[in-house]
Design goal:
138 residues; mainly alpha; two-stranded antiparallel sheet; 5 helices; 6% strand
């Protein structure tokens, strides 16, 4: 189960890294537009914001999925919701469940996505600048 969640997270991260590069190459090659930078920036912001949103949601959801897998995330009928309990967790998985509990607590995934995108968005400009430098050298 952990391997599956790690593979999906890795693919989403790979998408965040490769989409701006593919956009830079693709806009110039497939679309002969006059405003390449504006097209690149708008489409890059929209696509990477969507991927970042999915990535932030997936990290939160995969932690809950792993807690359910280790029997640490159980339904409590008194509060009509789920909570983390250590009763059914095997002793060898107890440390892992505690670390997953810490990851689940804190700010929500939507705020993590917004904060991550603020730090990620300059990457779009760096890819465009490096791409322009490489094109001019050729």
């Amino acid at each position: 189960m952990e391997t599956l969640t790690t593979i999906i997270s890795f693919l989403l991260l790979l998408g965040l890294i490769s989409v701006p590069i593919l956009l830079f190459v693709g806009i110039k090659k497939w679309y002969r537009l006059k405003f390449n930078f504006l097209t690149y920036l708008i489409s890059g912001l929209i696509i990477t914001a969507g991927i970042m949103w999915i990535f932030a949601w997936w990290t939160d959801y995969s932690n809950i999925l792993l807690l359910k897998h280790y029997n640490g995330y159980v339904y409590n009928p008194d509060s009509d919701g789920y909570q983390i309990e250590y009763d059914n967790v095997l002793p060898e998985n107890l440390e892992r469940v505690k670390s997953l509990e810490i990851r689940v607590m804190g700010i929500g995934w939507s705020l993590k996505a917004i904060m991550s995108f603020v730090f990620y968005s300059p990457y779009l400009l760096i890819v465009y600048g490096v791409g322009q430098l490489i094109r001019r050298k050729k």
